[in-house]
Amino acid sequence: MVTVAIIEDQREIREGLRELIDGAEDLRCAAAFGSVEETLPSIGDDLPDVVLVDIGLPGKSGIEGIRLLKERYPNLMLVVLTVFDDDRRVFEAICAGASGYLLKKTPTPRLIQGIRDAAAGGSPMSPEIAARVIALFRQTRPAPPEDHDLTPHELRVLKLLVDGHNYRTAAVELGVSVNTISFHMKRIYDKLHVHTKSEAVAKALRNQIVG
Fold this sequence. Notes:
The chain is an alpha/beta fold. The chain has two domains: 2-139, Rossmann fold (3-Layer(aba) Sandwich); 152-206, Arc Repressor Mutant, subunit A, CATH 1.10.10.10. It is 50% helix and 13% strand. The chain has helices at residues 11-22, 36-39, 62-72, 87-96, 108-119, 127-139, 152-162, 167-174, 178-192, 197-206, and strands at 2-7, 27-33, 50-53, 77-82, 100-103. It has a five-stranded parallel β-sheet with strand order 2-1-3-4-5, with helices on both faces. α3 (62-72) links the parallel β3 and β4 (77-82). The longest helix has 15 residues, at 178-192. The two termini are 42 Å apart. The relative contact order is 0.09. The model has no long low-confidence stretch (mean pLDDT 90).
């Protein structure tokens, strides 16, 4: 049995979704909320398999709700169910952690199957939304990795720090002195425009400087 929660401010739609879900033999509506603020204190008591989230909610938006819920429950499957199909909201919802994006005009059989797909780890999307996502992906190509003019040896030192080494263990790994590691790190800091080891590691990961 797949358990589903609903976050929808319009009572008629909320109750209609509850009936639709409970009418499927393998689905059960575990909870229905009218806002993000109502959801946050209660949903963790009996975490559902899938949450249907409207975007246009009073108070915190559905996108903000998705972000907050994903932070608290990383494995929770959150599926947008909305009337909005513009690029900005689609992009923001997916970036916030939505597992799928369905429009409210989705036919009932497709909606039910979308819930099942989300529970199984899929990413259900209305056809027009899927087309938009592909178009957005083509427009937003990832930037190529940067090396910030680091020398091969500096890259090796930085890679060791990313892997969890400190100056002493990095020195042992490379067969050099701690002072040599410290010298290289000063040059790495200058080239990356950072001031601490943690900043250097974070920038190396964010900019894909080391593999």
